[in-house]
Each structure stands twice: as structure tokens, then as C-alpha cells.
Amino acid sequence: MKKSVIWLLTIIMALTFGVLLYFQIMYLENMVKMRDEQFSEGVMRSLYSTSEFLEREETLHFLEQDINIIESSFYHDYANTPPVETSRIEPSQIFPPANQNVAERYRNMQEVIRSQYLYQKGLLNEVILSILRDAGSRPVMERADSTLIRNCLRTELANNGVNVPFAFAIYGVRGNLIYSTEGYKDKAKHNMYSIPLFSNSDTYYNLKVQFPTKHSYIFSSVRFIIPTLILTLILLIIFLYTIILAFRQKKLTEMKTDFINNMTHELKTPISTISLAGQMLSDPSIRKSPTSLQHLSEVITEESKRLRFQVEKVLQMSVFDNTGSALKFTEVDANNIIANVVNTFKIKVEKYGGSLTTMLEADNAEIRVDEMQFTNVIFNLLDNAVKYMDEEREPQLEISTKDISETQLEIRIKDNGIGIKKDDLKRIFDKFFRVSTGNLHDVKGFGLGLAYVKKMITLFGGTISAESEFGKGSTFVITLPLISNKET
């Protein structure tokens, strides 16, 4: 599949998931907002009902307490007023004689009803005046009893569909706290609702109610949306992970294709040279010349070494599948192995007019590694230093060892080559990756060397890192555990 097609599918799916998540989040927000408004509306209705209930209870209290006194006083006043006596109504007034005409009977009935109305009106006026005069003098615990308020609030909230715990408090006109129930927090302003009590009297109070579990109550009513949101997020993560794997797999496939092409070219050159030398040996004139025979023999030997070296490079791939099962760990002195490799490799460096400096300063260099693989690691790093040298200056290589602690050995390999770009530095240890060399086309390799080095150092229980400045050179730093502190 083409990369452009993968990108197109990725963009379409990402937009689809993004829009889906957006609508789900917006729906969740709207649901929470709607539930919050419904909650607030139900609470305020309950508070209004509670306020009206307390006012009715206070009115009933005064009616029951003063009705007899007011009624007797009212009758007494009317009894002492002869012109207008409405305290006693004769039956003849309600039921006039039959010989009266209809108009007169109607007027008598109107007069009786008017007298009754004046009586009831006077009675109610006395009651209202008594309430307005005496209500403020009643103790607050009688006017706003906590048990009465709690029961009324609980009933009204349940009727409005709000079944959550609450706490409340009564405040005075000046904002002073009169009393509060258990769980009420005076400084907490969130999730609080307020309403005035007895606002028509001279002395009134404020009822404030708190709902500590309001948020959890609201979210519990919309929690059925959360699983769908989580599933969508999981699908999005899986989709992104699949796309990443697809790109990695495609890139790995491209790298393997390049590797095969490069390997074919690398193996083809020495094979062709050996084949040509073999054909020349069949020529009788060549066989009669000792100098020609010597030259062809050297060519065949060198190309055979080159072919063997390339084959060994390819065989290093098996290490990535065999996680250490084929390694043979032994106790070795790192200084001795490095010195042997340097003695062999110094000739190659001097061939280009350069130098290889060693500073084996580690007092304790005993490590536990596979000797052959460790030798290959050092050789690969030195070979890379020569392979990527700057043609405008002589190669200068340095290799050193030192004890950075009682438990670790540090090995540094430094060169003055072309260096590594910052973007490539992050990937140099990746399998099949080859550092770009611009217009330089004579750098050979399969992109396995540093990946192999990284794998081996990890299996040895150590670490490797690279420091480089493009155009000035590179430094590879290896740390390995010393044998005296490493588990055997």
C-alpha cells in the first residue's frame, strides 16, 4: 500500500474519531448542564414551598392561640354598641315572614350577609395585626424549628425528584449564623442555595441549604455516557497504534529491501573479482609469470577475506533472534582485548596516514563477556571510525578505558570523522539504519554494525551512547559492569 493512501486513511479516520469524540463530549456537557439546571430548579421550588409552609404554620399558631380571645373581645365590643348589634342574628332576619314581598326579603338577606362579612373581616384584621405585632418577638427556634424544616425540606425535595443528602443553616438579618445542622460548612459557597424566611414580617431570616454530593449526583445521572466515551478513546488509541505499526512495518520493509540490494552489491564485487582472477589463472601465459601468479594470488586472498567479512556481517543478524542463547560468557581483561584489537587495526589506520592512540587507564578491567563478540564490538566501532573519516584530514582515533566507579568500567572511542547529524544520532542504533553521507557514495555496509554493537552491550549488562558534532567527529561511550560486583 502506498504511503499516500495510508496517510489519507489516517486523516479520514482521525477526523472521524475526532468529530465523534467532540459530539460525545458536547452531549455530555449539555447533559450535565441540563441536569444541573433541573437540580437547581427542583431545589428552589422546594425552598419556596418550605418558606410558605413555615409562614402557614406561624399563622396557624396565632390563630389557635388568639382566636378565642379575639373572638370574645370582638363580641363584647359589639354587645356594648346598641345601634349596630351583629353579635346575635334573629332567625326572622334570615328567614323573614312569608307575608313580606320578595324585594323586602332580598334586602333583609343582603343585610344579614353584610353583617356576617363585617364580622369575619374584623376578626381576620385583628388576627393579622396580632401576627405582625407579636411574630417578631417569638424565639427563632419556635418560628424556624430545625426538625420541622428538615422534614419539610426532605419531603419537598423528594417530591421534586432531588434525593440527595443536605445540610442547612439559619442566618439573621445581618448575616450572623444562628444555628446550623451537622455537615454544614459556613465558608463553602459552592452547591449552596438560599431563600428568605418570614420576609413579610419585621424580623426575617435566611435559610441556606448545602448539597455536598451534588456533583456526584449529577454525574451519576449521566454516567451511562462515560463507557461509550471510554470505548471511543480506546478505539482511537488502537487505531493510532495500528497506524504507527503500519508505518514502522513499511519502513522496515523498505530498509530490508535496501539491505538485500546492498548485500547483493557487496557480495557481487568480491565474487566477480575472484571469478576474473580464476579465469586469468587458466591463461598459460599468466601461469608462466611468477609475478602475475603472485599478484593474482594476493587478489584472490584479499577478496576472499573481504567476502568472508561480509558474510560474517550478515550472520550477525542471527544475534537479534537468538537473545544471548549462543553467547559464551567468560571472565576477560578488557584492556588486553582492546590492546590486541588496536595492534591489528593500527595498520589500517596508518594506511590512511592517521594514528590510533590508546589510553588504557582502568586499574580494574575485569569483565564477564563473550570474548569473540566483545572483540567484534570494538572492531566494529573502530571500523566505523575509519569508514566515515573526513577525506580532507588524516584520521585521528582515540580509545581509552577508566574506572568511573567501583562497579563500572567506561570505554571511549573517539574519532575526528565527518560526524553524525542530530536527526540521525537518535537512530544510529536501529537495525538496517545507515547514516546519510551526502555526496559520499563509497561508504559500504549493511546498517547492522551499530545495531549489533547495541545488542551485544545490552546482553553484557552494559549501556552504550553516542556523542557527535556534525563535521567534527564522534565519540562512543560504553559502560560495563566490573566482574567483582556483577552477579555470577
Outline the structure in words.
Helices cover 58% and strands 14% of the residues. With 488 residues, the chain is an alpha+beta fold. The chain has a five-stranded mixed beta sheet, covered by helices on one side. Strands 2-1-4-3 form a four-stranded antiparallel beta sheet, with helices on one face. Strands 5-7 form a two-stranded antiparallel sheet. Residues 83-89 and 438-443 have low confidence and may be disordered.
| Number of DSSP helical runs | 14
The main pleated sheet reads as:
5 strands, mixed
Low-confidence stretches: 83-89, 438-443
What fraction strand? 5-15%
**How many strands in all?**
11
Mean pLDDT: 78
N-to-C order of helices and strands: HHHHHEEEEHHHHHEHEEHEEHHEE
Radius of gyration: 51 Å
The strand order across the widest sheet is 6-8-9-11-10
**Helix content range of the residues, please?**
55-70%
Spatial shape: rod-shaped
Cα separation of the termini = 50 Å
Structural class: alpha+beta
Write the layout of secondary structure elements.
Elements: H1 3-79, H2 91-94, H3 102-134, H4 140-143, H5 146-159, E1 167-171, E2 177-180, E3 192-197, E4 205-210, H6 214-221, H7 225-281, H8 284-287, H9 290-315, H10 318-321, E5 329-333, H11 334-351, E6 355-360, E7 366-370, H12 371-387, E8 396-403, E9 408-414, H13 422-425, H14 449-459, E10 463-469, E11 473-481
Parallel strand pairs: 6-8
Antiparallel strand pairs: 1-2, 1-4, 3-4, 5-7, 8-9, 9-11, 10-11
Helix pairs in contact: 1-3, 1-5, 1-7, 7-9, 11-12, 12-14
